[in-house]
Amino acid sequence: MKDIFTAPFVKGMMKTTANMYRMGWDERNGGNISMMLDNDEVAEYLDINKPIRKIEMGFDAKELIGKIFIVTGTGKYFKNVEDDPECNLGIIRVAEDGVTADLLWGYSDGGRPTSELPAHLMSHISRLHANPENRVIMHSHPTNTLAMTYVHELDEKKFTHSLWEMCTECIVVFPDGIGVLPWMVCGTNEIGIATAEKMKEFRLVIWGQHGIYGCGKDLDEAFGLIETVEKAAQLYLMTAHLPRVNTITDPDLVELAKAFKLDYRKDYLDL
Ligand code: 13P
Ligand code: ZN
User: Fold this and answer.
1) Pocket flag, ligand 1, residue 144 (CB < 6 Å)
2) pLDDT digit string, tens, across residues 177-203
3) Ligand 2 mean position to 176 CA, how many Å?
4) What is the pTM (predicted TM-score) of this model?
5) Known catalytic residues?
6) Do 174 and 264 form a contact (C-beta atoms < 8 A)?
7) CB of 26 closer than 6 A to ligand 1?
8) Are 240 and 150 in contact (CB under 8 A)?
9) What is the pLDDT of residue 192?
């Protein structure tokens, strides 16, 4: 059996959580990540037939029965994952009943997966339908994105458009736009259902006055989506109180879309 601490998926989670912490996106226990793993790859590191204990999930994830995920622990600090991955991360498999999970590794202090597990697993289901290659769901509290939700209308078209205007790369990175949810109580099945509904259509979902969800085929892709939104939100806030002398116009965005052959939300432009 190979050493689990050398597994690329454990090392990837360590590196990404440390990066997100250093970006200032994940104060205290803020943020959570889940990544679907390949069962055969996990079996090189763990005896997947010997679960440590059962974890009640409190919602139905039948579509994911037998799937294995590495997930950040609830209440755990991203800044501490690198030093003690076995305590701050867990590897779980959705059990045969679809409502419990088998813990295969981690949460060594008796911990549990993130309180946002409903939003994560329900979003995995949505994204796998949209793109079978999707593996990662990432939630974070990036400062400027969060600040923008206090001063900008929480309207998907207007929010996406304001971000597309801020950096040339935005429409290229997220041509499908951003889903936006109003403020809701977090950690509930309700916010999970609402997030997953948006994830059918969008790879990015803003939670008003809370944070953002991103997804992707790997950790870099989910991170890069959030990073691009956060950069644009920072530029928006740096300029929101100043007279706008220049901007990227809608015809410019159309030119970009043509040049990069983008399948973009045309209805989010005013032409
Ligand atoms: P967890 O510590 O349960 O992952 O919660 C953090 C968070 O960001 C809640 O939205
Ligand atoms: Zn949060």
Assistant:
1) no
2) 999 999 999 999 999 999 999 999 999
3) 23
4) 0.98
5) 116
6) no
7) no
8) no
9) 98
Same domain, 123 and 44: no
Query: Structural domain tally of the chain?
Result: 2
Give the model's confidence band at 225: pLDDT under 50 very low, under 70 low, under 90 confident, else very high.
very high
Mutate to test the pocket of ligand 1, among 92, 114, 138 (most ligand atoms within 8 A of CB): 114
Q: Which of 68, 228, 245 is nearest to 140 (CA)?
A: 228
Last residue of a domain, one of 86, 114, 142: 114
Report CA(31)–ligand 1 centroid distance (Å).
5
Query: Which residue segment(s) compose the domain that 98 sits in?
Result: 1-114
Express each pLDDT in 98-146 by its tens digit. Answer: 999 999 999 999 999 999 999 999 999 999 999 999 999 999 999 999 9
CATH number of the domain at 98, please.
Answer: 3.40.225.10
In this structure, the answer to whether residues 243 and 137 fall within a common structural domain is yes
